[in-house]
Write a structure and sequence with these properties.
Helix content: 25-40%
Strand order of the largest sheet: 1-2-3-4-5
Number of domains: 1
Structural class: alpha+beta
Low-confidence stretches: none
Shape: elongated
Largest sheet: 5 strands, antiparallel
Distance between the termini: 71 Å
CATH class: Alpha Beta
Order of helices and strands: HEEEEE
Strand content: 15-25%
CATH architecture: 2-Layer Sandwich
Radius of gyration: 24 Å
Number of strands: 5
Number of helices: 1
């Protein structure tokens, strides 16, 4: 008698393949989500850097980072696909030789981190902030006290 030609997979083989795929998915999906969030934050940093260079050119022409004594100049880039960008703090009373630009996620539930850059082009990322894109005005109020758990961005 000849052995019948085996076709397909056994139930045990199929279950093993599904289990291995599930374990890989459990590992890969969070890593991919972190990669996506980090890429968005890096893009916001790039746009902040472009705005900081604009501010440096503005300073060279006007000898101040402020448009007037009470207003910041209009930034060339005010948003990315996921972050809104504004100066931090009111221009009124700010030092003429200093500025901080800040990027805050439109959806704070999916990305709580913010990123800031100052006149020395030092980028800082903070794990949380009270600032939101829904805040009215042309700048983020509250100064640096609204940002928590900050570290230099590398």
């Amino acid at each position: 008698m000849q052995n019948a030609c085996r076709q397909g997979f056994t139930l045990l083989e199929l279950l093993a393949a599904i289990a291995i795929s599930a374990v890989l998915a459990v590992i890969a999906v969070p890593a991919y989500q972190k990669y996506v969030l980090d890429t968005r934050l890096n893009h916001a940093r790039t746009v902040l850097l472009q705005n900081a260079h604009f501010m440096e050119r503005f300073y060279q022409q006007h000898r101040s980072f402020k448009q007037t004594s009470t207003t910041w100049p209009a930034l060339p880039h005010t948003a990315t696909g996921h972050f809104c960008i504004r100066p931090q703090g009111n221009a009124r009373g700010a030092h003429d030789g200093k500025f901080t630009l800040k990027a805050v996620a439109f959806d704070k539930n999916s990305e709580a981190r913010i990123i800031k850059i100052n006149e020395s082009l030092t980028a800082v990322v903070c794990e949380s902030s009270a600032s939101t894109c829904a805040d009215s005005g042309s700048f983020f109020a509250g100064g640096s006290t609204v940002d928590k758990k900050c570290r230099v961005f590398q």
